[in-house]
């Protein structure tokens, strides 16, 4: 079992769940603009209504109570409380009230809010006017926004995350263009965005430290998502170096400046070398001044870690390219073991042992910081049979067990957050990937929530604070699988009712209208013949 006081929770983010994209004074975000362009998201799905979380706060808090979680990780939508992203221009009181009500409801139910200031939904105005994270002016605009949040919510929120998975913001937003704002800026875009994000994080931490900490007594951290890289041949020095390079380019890109004052040496060397080969006078990886290194180092009260999967890594030399980028800068290739379970999408293999290794790497590299696991979970690529998501049960059991082993290794892990509470909008994959402990029937206008087997199983882990004995844990598994069958019967009945309602609301009026039109035509025909 876990130590007394270990914290259990679930998470979600604003754009993925809230919906109400243009309601009550909210401004547009880059994800609103991105998803409204055809062909950017699988199935042309959007988060316009998502899970209708904006209107279902009380219902979703009831789900949190059912799970008996200690905490809920949520994000604030910057354009919901500051429509243009600029404090001096406009504040949206209805948006501020929404988050006040949400935070108060969580606390009334003894659930601790852990709040991320940024889960990818930059105000669209800042993207259009300034180029978003390519522009250094974002540092001050974001700091104004963060200070507004500290002012409005900091008396009750004691755990703040500045950025959730900034790697994806930089790499997918400004290099591959797979995510909003959808820019493909060659070899510099991702590095430049990340550079500004790191400086912004540090400024917000210092703002909290100097202005709010004494009075509010909270903590400010960052949430970094990283896979584990395992050398294909552990006896090969080049493979071992490639695997470590994989982690430094992923996790170390952000963690190293915060914990050690600068980018990883291997990153500086490789990007510098590739830049020189291109004939560039300076590296495509920006540099921090001596003052900036000192200012950034130590700016995290805890380290949030998101982790989903592992890759085998080997050395691979990319030939000289006129246009190099993040992926070719690393000189490595990623492989998977075909025998690894893949309960859902093909990028997400279940490899629990990689988590323990990643946590130990963090302990060794960064001085054993306080760690909150902020995202860990698996998706089904298709809706699971009868809500019986056995793959997720096995995933949770395996990964949570590896955290226990890491704790025994001396890693300073304080909290675990399952990702995620609900099936929701999954960025460029739309609604095709289901990460939720609770299924949502998106065909039903009311978007009802149904517990999957994993919700019941996770609830048992929380109540026992871990795994008391193998027989009992096996019993949890069996009971969870039994319960999902009965829940599925409710879902089937509700789906039938929804279908009947659609027939009533759409088909019957259509038939009625057709009957009237036919009668009119017949009447005209009759009158014409009569005359």
Structure description:
The protein has 531 residues and is an alpha/beta fold. Helices cover 48% and strands 12% of the residues. The chain has helices at 14-17, 30-35, 57-67, 78-81, 93-108, 124-130, 138-153, 166-174, 189-216, 237-260, 265-277, 290-296, 326-329, 353-365, 390-408, 453-464, 470-530; strands at 7-11, 71-75, 112-116, 159-164, 219-225, 228-231, 303-306, 310-315, 332-335, 371-376, 413-419, 438-440, 449-451. The longest helix is centred in the C-terminal third of the chain and has 61 residues, at 470-530. The N and C termini lie far apart (92 Å). The mean pLDDT is 94.
Write out key terms for the chains shown.
single chain, 3-stranded mixed β-sheet, 531 residues, 8-stranded parallel barrel, TIM Barrel
Give start-end ranges of low-pLDDT stretches: none
Tell me the quaternary state.
Answer: single chain
Number of helices: 17
Whole-number average pLDDT?
94
Q: Strand-and-helix sequence, N→C? A: EHHHEHHEHHEHHEEHHHEEHEHEHEEEHH
Share of residues in helices: 40-55%
CA gyration radius, whole angstroms = 25 Å
CATH-assigned fold name:
TIM Barrel
SS-derived structural category: alpha/beta
N-end to C-end Cα span: 92 Å
Portion in strands: 5-15%
Number of strands: 13
- Assign the CATH superfamily: Glycosidases
Principal-axis shape: globular
